[in-house]
Write a structure and sequence with these properties.
With 464 residues, this protein is of the alpha/beta class. It has two domains: 103 residues, Enolase-like, domain 1 (2-Layer Sandwich), CATH 3.30.390.10; 261 residues, Enolase-like C-terminal domain (TIM Barrel, Alpha-Beta Barrel). It has 15 helices and 16 strands. The protein has a four-stranded mixed sheet with strand order 10-11-4-13. It has a three-stranded antiparallel sheet with strand order 1-2-3. Helix 9 packs parallel to helix 10 and helix 13 packs parallel to helix 14. The N terminus is likely disordered. The protein binds magnesium ion (MG). Magnesium ion (MG) binds next to loops. The site of magnesium ion (MG) has 4 residues, from loops.
Length: 464
């Protein structure tokens, strides 16, 4: 390091690097004067003026499927657009009300835009608009910078995302086990079942007047679970969900009864979306009580938005063994990763809930690629034959041997297959104009004009 020779050679190296950058890929993103010609031997950047990129519009379609899929498109002044999706069974209006708050902004300023509309987001489907916006902005930015969406929020922990799938419930445990075995044959390595109290409700004395299993009913539920375990094996991850209207003590009773069957997790023992006794963030003490009373893995989170708004108390109080955010409610790529990273600090892993279209699914895949302590991501449409047809751009089938490969193409890596989508529209029309959302219809604070007040002489006036 003492000789001057290496310094000169380093400088030359930097000069060479700068020259190479000017001729190479970095050149693609340098703003060009209007009408400038791209030399033929350089890659053409179709979106050559990122600093002048502006959002011009937001429109939507809604696909009718197992649940409705509200899909949005954000357009810009340079032709590049982004696709996003609000939470399944939600409404595109949650995203569209944000339109007047983002039009004219540069879509590459993702965090600033999301911060500016964060107060519009809340738990359950009310997190869907914010989440759809996050996804569409990452799709645009990925296309503009020529990188896959995951690269904008982190680096990759895995090349493919392990998928778990829901399987249609039946009161016959042998038939249900056969369905799971078929899933296994199709390559799935992670399974989930509905273990609803309704499975045993027809048995006399099995369910009390609150809709909760009695001791007899709980024994029957465990027999059901044992039959399923015997079919699928005890060595594969099997999660369970949808137990009914349980309170904390019911949940503990159920969770303890399930211990011999080593569930991958018991999901939402307290019902989702029930503010008083359910999965509301303020009820983290309920969850802590359940978690500490059993060795069954307890998880929740599919209806929670945001780290501060939803997940923080559950995580920092170690109130659950695992979190289970849905990216289309939790805040999509940036926020769900933020939640998962925070959970990792406390040793809590993240499973991902998901029940939407391939657009939102790929957003979840990009996000899941970047989180450290990832378990598996849900797919709720394995039995819908046309689900994968809704998009182009990724290998088909989208789920390959129980995994989804992480795309390396710019943005989300998918475009809509217009013909396939049009065959399943809930509302006719294709990304129709949305003038009803041009002006804010809800806002945080607006001054409508001069208001009645007293002037310096104490005289009531309206004008200033
Ligand atoms: Mg669930």
């Amino acid at each position: 390091m003492s000789s001057s020779k290496p310094v000169i050679s380093r400088r030359r190296m930097f000069e060479r690097m700068a020259g190479a950058a000017a001729l190479g890929s970095a050149f693609r993103f340098v703003e060009q004067p209007a009408g400038a010609q791209q030399p033929a031997d350089r890659p053409v950047n179709r979106y050559s003026a990122p600093s002048r990129l502006q959002i011009t519009d937001m429109r939507a379609i809604r696909i009718a499927s197992n649940y409705d899929y509200p899909i949005i498109r954000i357009d810009t002044n340079q032709g590049v657009y982004g696709l996003g999706e609000a939470r399944d069974a939600g409404n595109e209006g949650m995203a569209l009300i944000l339109k007047p708050h983002i039009v004219g902004k540069n879509p590459l300023n993702i965090a600033e835009i999301l911060d500016s509309v964060r107060n519009f987001a809340n738990q359950r489907r009310m997190g869907g608009g914010y989440s759809a916006l996050d996804i569409a902005l990452h799709d645009i930015s990925g296309k503009v910078y020529g990188v896959p969406a995951y690269r904008l929020v982190g680096s990759k922990y895995r090349d493919r995302i392990r998928i778990y799938c829901d399987t249609t419930e039946t009161a016959d445990p042998k038939l249900f086990a056969e369905r799971l075995v078929l899933r296994k044959k199709n390559g799935f390595t992670f399974f989930k079942m509905d273990l609803g109290t309704d499975l045993v409700a027809r048995q006399p004395g099995a369910v009390n007047t609150r809709g909760v299993a009695t001791e007899k009913g709980l024994k029957l539920l465990c027999e059901y679970l044992a039959t399923v375990r015997d079919g699928i094996g005890y060595d594969v991850p099997l999660a369970a969900d949808h137990f009914g209207p349980l309170n904390v003590n019911d949940s503990i009773r159920y969770a303890r009864a399930f211990e011999p069957y080593e569930l991958a997790w018991m999901e939402d023992p307290l019902q989702v979306g029930t503010l008083s006794t359910g999965d509301a963030p303020k009820n983290w003490r309920f969850y802590k009580e359940i978690k500490e009373a059993t060795t069954t893995v307890i998880n929740t989170g599919e209806s929670l938005f945001g780290l501060e708004e939803g997940f923080r108390p559950l995580i920092e109080n170690l109130a659950v063994d695992m979190i289970h955010p849905d990216p289309l409610t939790a805040g999509a790529l940036i926020e769900t990763k933020r939640i998962a990273d925070f959970a990792s600090m406390y040793g809590i892993p993240t499973a991902v809930h998901f029940a939407g279209s391939p657009v939102g699914c790929m957003a979840g895949v990009h996000m899941a690629a970047t989180i450290k302590d990832f378990v598996a991501m849900e797919n709720h449409a394995v039995d819908i034959p046309w689900w994968g047809d809704l998009v182009t751009g990724v290998p088909k089938p989208i789920i390959q041997n129980g995994y989804i490969p992480v795309p390396e193409t710019p943005g989300l890596g998918v475009e809509l297959n217009e013909e396939a989508c049009k065959a399943h529209l809930r509302i006719q029309g294709w990304f129709e104009p949305t003038p009803q959302f041009d002006k804010p219809i809800v806002d945080e604070y607006r001054i409508g004009g001069p208001y009645p007040h007293l002037d310096d002489n104490g005289k009531p006036v309206v004008s200033r």
